[in-house]
């Protein structure tokens, strides 16, 4: 008798992507096998890991659940589970609207999924279990990582901020830090498996240490990562300007394997709007951080999140945002038109901006950032860069006979395929010959190819998996190694 299959569909931020790796690990520990790529609901268990950030998040979920209802009728024993932020928020509503759902679980108890599925099967009724506080730190659970050569490492969960546009603190809870020793032990274990790049993950990653009252805990953690043999690249996302201190900048600049890349959410360049958002910094403070980072790391690529059309935003407020964009010269920006998040203070604020005004401002901002991104990328032409070869980054690689990789500053580079074998996780040295707004090209022959333990790990995984089904259905594009920032937001929630 063949094993039961599962499919996980993920929406929202990289927190959810990381949680989905844990959900996949839990299901495989329980004896399930991944459904083939493109299964599209044709699995014994379908899990939705949801996001509550967008205004239409619930419509998207219920639409997808509705499409699965006839499939479930035709497939005896099929089970559907809904977890994540929307499940934490809507709870019993999900089963009322979609009574064919078997399990609803929240952000704090993802480890219960296999037990809840079995209970639903035996009792033949839906199981709704929403924990109010964290039961187990996600990183203590089994995992099925999406990459053999790069990994997320969660250092904290939750958020202590009260931004008026964000519902995440209500759903993820107050910030809870993980013990430094546990974090470093996980990183060392991952490096032992062949991982060469890790991304430290937290809803407000640089507030790490608030649990123990150590304001320099995050910079100490970065420096400790620098002492781990075999760990070539360290990134983190997403920091908050309020907690971004000089010791963090120094640690980034002085720790060779911490990459010269920073995602620093701006949200707005207007002081009155920042105040209405309950953001604890102002324009001068934000630009001061950027200036210090550039002084310490001249080649650093800085990206951001911006919300256009927040309630009460005037044309003058918007021009202040454009001013910051011109001054900061972001490598790229994740820009969003404000949309009401049910349950947030901003949703009921006066001064909601007409859609056509928001659209016009949004288009002006995108045009400006596109121009800056292109100008900044052109500065890379002629540089020699070490790329970590990536998997699935270049959609046209097959037809152009190119491969793709990430520069230390996380810029995407497409390069000519070398004559020698190159695997994801290996390192290739190239010279940049052309720049576009969102990628670079290296059209000449590679200057060097360095096989790595990470490439060995990728090859081993793919050899072992050759005869097995593959593909957790993660509903987000991958934009990095691992995808550092889905096109959803900085931490994926637009709330950092």
Topology:
Elements: E1 5-10, H1 14-29, E2 33-34, E3 45-50, H2 57-74, E4 79-84, H3 85-90, H4 92-97, E5 103-105, H5 113-123, E6 127-129, E7 150-154, E8 156-157, H6 168-172, E9 176-177, H7 180-192, E10 197-201, H8 217-225, E11 233-237, H9 246-254, E12 261-263, H10 271-276, H11 283-296, E13 301-308, H12 315-328, E14 332-337, H13 355-378, E15 384-389, H14 397-400, E16 402-406, E17 412-416, E18 427-431, E19 434-435, E20 440-442, E21 448-450, H15 453-464
Describe this structure in words.
The model is unreliable at 469-492 (pLDDT under 50). The protein is globular. It is α/β, with parallel strands linked by helices. 34% of the residues lie in helices and 18% in strands. The chain has a seven-stranded mixed β-sheet with strand order 19-20-17-16-15-18-21. A six-stranded parallel β-sheet has the order 2-1-3-4-5-6, sandwiched between helices.
